[in-house]
Amino acid sequence: MQVFECIIYGLDVPLSILNTNTPPVAPADALQHGKLFDSHGRQIRDLRLSVTDRCNFRCVYCMAPDVKYIPKMQLLTLDEYIRVIQIALSLGIEKLRITGGEPTLYPHLDELLKEVGKMGLKDIALTTNGSRIRGQWAQRWKSLGLNRVTVSLDTLNPQRKDAITRSQTSLQTVINSIDALRDAGLTPVKVNAVIMRGVNDDEVVAFADFAKEHEVDMRMIEFMPLDAGKRWERRHVVSAHEMLEQIKTKHDVIRENDSITSTSMNYRFKEGNGRIGFIASVTQAFCGACDRMRIMADGTLRPCLFSDEEWNIRSLLRSGASDDALRTFLINTMWQKSDGHQMNQEGFQRPQKTMSRIGG
Fold this sequence. Notes:
Blueprint: H1 2-8, E1 31-32, E2 35-36, E3 46-50, H2 78-90, E4 95-99, H3 109-116, E5 123-128, H4 135-144, E6 148-152, H5 158-165, H6 171-183, E7 190-195, H7 204-214, E8 217-222, H8 240-248, E9 253-255, E10 265-269, E11 275-279, E12 292-295, E13 300-302, E14 311-312, H9 314-317, H10 323-335, H11 355-358
Helix pairs in contact: 2-3, 2-10
């Protein structure tokens, strides 16, 4: 890990780089039959909502060890989160993923799940590092309306786990959480691993074994330029193709028929349960069908993960703005969504904020 620490280790970025609070006005066809569209004809169906920028891990590809958190008064309140979700739902949003930071640190998580569970969303998901989950939590979340959970697990080696996450939470604790979520019916449980050359790329086949053994969707993610140290380089990226070829040396796998908006290329095993998937943001970008909207814990809307174009809705929420004004804000903002991240083009500018700030 010493070599990788030198590459990735770094300081956090400034607290906020915000555009003006008023995005450019979108044309009338940004809203068609009550559905939200961007300027490239993509319908926006999926809301990724971060409810905290706090985390009890300091993963080397995500956060600096001395990260500066957003002051709590700048974070949205429970009522504000609920109102934003309701407004988004009125514009055709069908899916909600609750992210962070680490969302299990959010003190009102149960209350939020209880409210959104009543809204009629097609899919409600949660992303977590799996460090704080108990069996009764999983069962309660299921009863409140949560459909599924994604857990981050970047290594199956206990010592390596401590080095990557810079935490003392045991590997077995996370694995027990995965099993508890699966047993509670929060399925398919998706387990995400960011694969980094020279760090954990020797575990790709072991991750496939884990998927079969624990009957989960194991998703391997190409290392993206969202690290706090700003030292990402393409040579650290292990491509999805390379990972798949490694797995094929041991397992027979069959490609699934994924939906057009799927972020992962998924495969099932010819024999046995569980699946594997690859999120190839770097080598096989899926921007053309992107249907996602991201809202950070402080109310900042980010139409594209890899663009620093963003606007903040918090002042509208706190100044008595009407629901129509909030809807107009979302419509105008999402119309600015770029056609793609341009990562493979000359002149690409990496985002200033890390994934922990933006929300997974």
